[in-house]
Write a structure and sequence with these properties.
The protein is of the alpha/beta class. The chain has a domain of about 150 residues: L,D-transpeptidase catalytic domain-like (Beta Barrel). It has five helices and ten strands. It has an eight-stranded mixed beta sheet with strand order 3-2-1-10-5-6-7-9, sandwiched between helices. The protein has a two-stranded parallel ribbon with strand order 4-8. A hairpin with a 5-residue loop joins strand 5 and strand 6. The longest helix has 13 residues. The two termini are about 25 Å apart.
Length: about 240
């Protein structure tokens, strides 16, 4: 690559402009592809031909299926460092699925989840102060947003992941005390359509909590991103498609 072309290439990359169109053929494999919000995770070796300095940092889903929204947010988190070098979690409400990543964006494991009955993205004010009997169906919401999460305990002394203590929002092992709710059966079913049952907290399989969530978030905690279901992720997180910044 001639010096002048290399100079334009490096300057464009550092300014976030991408590779100059006239010089794209000089880059191994052509212009580095932008990460689309429609990309189902990051395929391994997607930009393996690029020097390390010029590779776009993305989340590593490996072979785990993920929705376009989950891929979009996880890639944005890794690229921007929004997780502040902490483990992070992406909760996809539409697919009723939880992804836990290490601090560098490598997927540790994914699992189904049970979520709030109401399909809304904003909590009812004061819902955390209400007794369960007063939390009616229309306000049983798992709110969208970014939460700095810490391991803690509930009133029964059980360890849970607190997302918003004042609002009573947490992620915990699936609660199976009310047999009529069939919570374990809902988790085990192949469809997310029957996973809306909780008062707003996120229920996950017991092994997933014990083997993945608890070890990953022990100590300094981490960041949890709950995806919206009534608007695009960018409206909640300010995220953008890599290559469009």
């Amino acid at each position: 690559m001639p010096v002048s072309t290399r100079g334009k290439f490096i300057v464009a990359l550092f300014l976030g402009l991408g590779v100059p169109a006239a010089d794209a053929q000089d880059v191994p494999g052509g212009r580095p592809p932008a990460v689309s919000a429609g990309s189902p995770g990051t395929p391994p070796g997607d930009d393996a031909g690029m020097p390390e300095l010029f590779r776009i940092k993305r989340a590593r889903f490996d072979a785990e299926p993920a929705s376009p929204a989950a891929s979009h947010v996880a890639d944005w988190v890794v690229f921007t460092g929004d997780n502040r070098r902490q483990p992070f979690m992406v909760i996809d409400k539409i697919d009723a699925k939880v992804f836990v990543f290490d601090a560098g964006g490598r997927l540790l494991r994914a699992a189904p989840a049970l979520l709030g009955l109401a399909e809304r993205d904003v909590d009812e004010p004061g819902v955390g102060d209400l007794p369960l009997s007063d939390i009616h169906a229309e306000i049983r919401v798992t709110p969208a947003g970014r939460f700095v999460a810490q391991m803690g305990r509930n009133l029964k002394g059980e360890d849970i992941l607190w997302l918003d203590y004042s609002a009573g929002l947490s992620l915990h092992r699936v609660v199976t005390g009310n047999k009529a709710e069939r919570r374990q059966e809902r988790l085990d079913s192949p469809t997310p359509r029957d996973n809306r049952i909780s008062y707003g907290c996120i229920n996950v399989p017991v092994p997933f909590f014990d083997e993945v969530v608890q070890p990953a978030f022990a100590g300094s905690g981490g960041v949890v991103y709950i995806l919206p279901e009534t608007r695009p992720p960018s409206a909640v997180f300010g995220s953008y498609t890599l290559g469009d910044q």
